[in-house]
Design goal:
The complex is a heterodimer of chains A (240) and B (242). Chain A has 240 residues and is an alpha/beta fold. In chain A, strands 1-2-3-4-5-6-7-8 form an eight-stranded parallel beta sheet. Chain A contains twelve helices and eight strands. A seven-stranded parallel beta sheet of chain B has the order 1-2-3-4-5-6-7. In chain B, strand 1, helix 1 and strand 2 form a beta-alpha-beta unit. Chain B is globular. Classes of the chains: A alpha/beta (240), B alpha/beta (242). Chain B: One of its GO terms (cellular component) is cytoplasm. Chain B: InterPro entries: ACMSD, Amidohydro-rel, Metal_Hydrolase. Chain B: This is Amidohydrolase-related domain-containing protein.
């Protein structure tokens, strides 16, 4: 045991559903290989029972083969990756995935070089809302809230940084379907400021350290039942 | 026991209410001592913030202070250093390159670092990306200066490894609001462990961020002890034993 032992602080907290997990690798950076077995092992080491998993192969190269890899993984909640560089193909893929029972799709605007104002984003947002799909989206929440507004969309903003917490709060007040990942809400009072039913634990395993949001949640000022909700209850309500 | 070499006192302009340092938070993470700069000094008015911090330090036993230097206000900085360093509660200098519009390569930053070197205390300098390499060069060009690369380059931690290996008067401090996988382990593997420190950026960032990232690295007991407090005690000359 060292001065940096987190186990005692985390206690018995377990995550029942992590909303931000990826398989596959980024070709443009060093990093973990992201093969499914190693990703699932990292989740297990961090007391994360189930991940909502999306494919980087789908996001970066080929939608169908990447998403089919995720659909074949046992014991995960599959999330369909879309490619905003191809809104026509993405809508086609959404319809295919919805027919197979997938409940959520994921957007990668930063990786795909897509801005919030591009027509593709609004097009995909409308179709996802019409299909009743939950959208997990990267990107700056100050911009990416807009294409989802007024659609009664269910959205989880995966990149909400505590610097932009005020922007999330004001748009979420008008949009009951807007939620945020906890991953970057690591100021001393961000988790305690967002309504607990809008918070979902997200780690971005294996590219980020899942221990950090886990520790922040475990030591938060939330009530035990709120922690349970953030650690997976809210995600289950959205993703099944 | 942990010494937090990168902490703050005072309010922030974001949507947050954390002006008061929370001793319970320090206790939770085993942080015995924090070295803080005044947010007012860092963001807006160095002299006013240093003066306020001087008053507050008289009310606490678990904090030391940084005299914040704005490289664009070196005459004020010299007066502040003369006034506060001899008191013993200020043990270093904080310089934020962005808030003062003073990149590490700027002439005024170089002058500020020379001023700090003349006082014999370490300087905590904000670094981001490849600017940590510029800081290493500036330290090498400034005789006697000892500097801490705040955030150890943040997303540029690989540059921080290179910087620390090139300059034996540069220390690294890890706080960052993101936690890329393996960041701490990669730095520990590449740098002399005697030049690694621990910092949180509290009260802007909860200590869970830096603590969790370091915990995830699975350090050996010896390296953990150096990072937790031994290196800081030696660098700042603190009168602390575990």
């Amino acid at each position: 045991m060292t001065a940096f032992d987190a186990r005692g602080l985390i206690g018995e907290l377990t995550v029942t559903l992590d909303v931000d997990v990826l398989v596959g690798a980024y070709a443009d950076r060093d990093g973990p290989p992201g093969d499914p077995s190693s990703v699932l092992a990292v989740l297990g080491e961090n007391r994360i029972g189930v991940g909502a998993v999306a494919s980087l192969r789908a996001a970066l190269f080929d939608l169908r083969s990447g998403n089919d890899e995720v659909l074949a993984l046992p014991g995960v909640v599959p999330v369909g990756a879309l490619d905003l560089r191809d809104p026509i193909g993405s809508v086609r893929e959404m319809e295919r995935l919805a027919a197979r029972g997938v409940r959520a799709v994921r957007l990668f605007p930063d990786e795909q070089g897509v801005e919030a104002g591009f027509p593709s984003v609004r097009h995909v947002a409308r179709r996802a809302a019409a299909l009743g799909l939950v959208v997990l989206t990267g990107g700056d929440v100050r911009r990416f809230w807009q294409p989802f507004s007024g659609l009664e969309a269910k959205v989880v903003f995966l990149d909400t940084h505590f610097y932009h917490l005020g922007d999330f709060l004001v748009v979420a007040a008008d949009e009951p379907g807007f939620h945020t990942s906890t991953r970057l809400l690591n100021s001393p009072d961000a988790l305690e400021t967002v309504p607990a039913d809008r918070l979902l634990y997200g780690s971005r395993t294996p590219h980020y350290e899942p221990l950090v949001p886990l520790l922040r949640l475990a030591t938060s000022g939330l009530k035990p039942e709120e922690i349970t909700a953030v650690a997976g209850g809210n995600a289950r309500r959205l993703l099944g | 026991m942990i010494v937090d070499v990168h902490a703050h006192w005072g309010p922030w302009f974001f949507t947050m209410d954390v002006a008061e340092l929370n001793l319970a938070t320090m206790d939770r993470y085993g942080i015995g001592v924090s070295i803080v700069s005044a947010t007012e000094a860092v963001i807006y008015d160095a002299s006013a913030g240093n003066r306020a911090l001087d008053g507050w330090l008289a009310t606490t036993e678990r904090h030391y202070g940084y005299v914040t230097v704005n490289p664009r206000r070196l005459a004020e900085a010299e007066r502040d250093l003369d006034e506060y360093l001899p008191k013993g509660r200020f043990v270093g200098v904080k310089i934020h390159t962005d808030y003062t519009g003073s990149p590490v390569t700027s002439p005024q930053l170089r002058e500020a670092l020379a001023l700090v070197a003349s006082r014999g205390v370490p300087a905590l300098v904000h670094t981001w990306g490849a600017s940590v390499l510029d800081l290493a060069q500036a330290v090498m060009d400034t005789p006697g200066l000892r500097a801490i690369a705040g955030h150890m380059g943040a997303d540029g931690h690989r540059y921080a490894v290179e910087a620390a290996r090139s300059c034996d008067r540069l220390w690294l401090e890890p706080c960052y609001s993101h936690a890329p996988a393996g960041r701490i382990a990669q730095v520990v593997a590449g740098v002399d462990p005697e030049r690694l420190l621990f910092g949180t950026d509290s009260t802007l960032i909860d200590p869970a961020s830096a603590f969790g990232a370091v915990a995830a690295a699975g350090l050996s007991p010896g390296v953990a002890e150096l990072i937790a407090w031994r290196n800081a005690v030696q660098l700042f000359g603190l009168d602390i034993t575990a």
